[in-house]
Amino acid sequence: MVMCRLISGAPSAAIVSAVAELEAALFPTPWGADSLLATLTQPGTLLAIAESENGSLAAYCIVQQVLDEATVLQVATAIAFQRQGLAQRLCQLCENALRASGCATLWLEVRAKNAAAISLYERLGFVTAALRKRYYPALPSGEPEDDARVMRRDLAGQIQ
User: Residues 23, 60, 95, 121: which is the catalytic one?
Assistant: First the structure.
């Protein structure tokens, strides 16, 4: 069984390290522990995590709120836990906390070729607001530059 929770306050060094390790395993250009810690300790930043029964990190979602808007900065799920709805549950945990703090709009950007992520965000109620041409640099694997889809979700007046 996987437990999902919102981390309140500054995360422990162990959690930051686990997030950094998961990022390094999944992303070609991970943030690294120092950048993650700097972001996670900023006011208005939320971290939702999913942990397996043995306490290992299965997934996480980082969201940052400024005034009445917030941005999903990062969502990731360990390969062994993908396609189990964890990212959706974590996004919903963050959305509920954002609504409670008066947030009206949630934004994100995603690689236009990332069909799985786009499908998740559309299920959560996000709609495409803009397209940024050639926004993402080419990946080390040799894939060319990619567009970014800017997506938004209105939170005001919605109760989940």
Answer: 121
**Which residue is associated with the tokens 């945990």?**
93
Residue-wise pLDDT for 33-50, tens only, equals: 999 999 999 999 999 999
Please write the tens of the pLDDT for every residue from 105-160: 999 999 888 899 999 999 999 999 999 998 787 776 667 778 899 999 999 865 54
Torsion of CA 54, 57, 58, 61, to 10 degrees: 150
The pTM assigned to this predicted structure is 0.91
Q: Does the annotation count 121 as an active-site position?
A: yes
| DSSP structure string for 40-101 | HTSTTEEEEEEE-TTS-EEEEEEEEEETTEEEEEEEEE-GGGTTSSHHHHHHHHHHHHHHHT
Catalytic residue, candidates 60, 95, 109, 136: 109
Residue 145 DSSP class: -
- Is 109 among the residues known to form the active site? yes
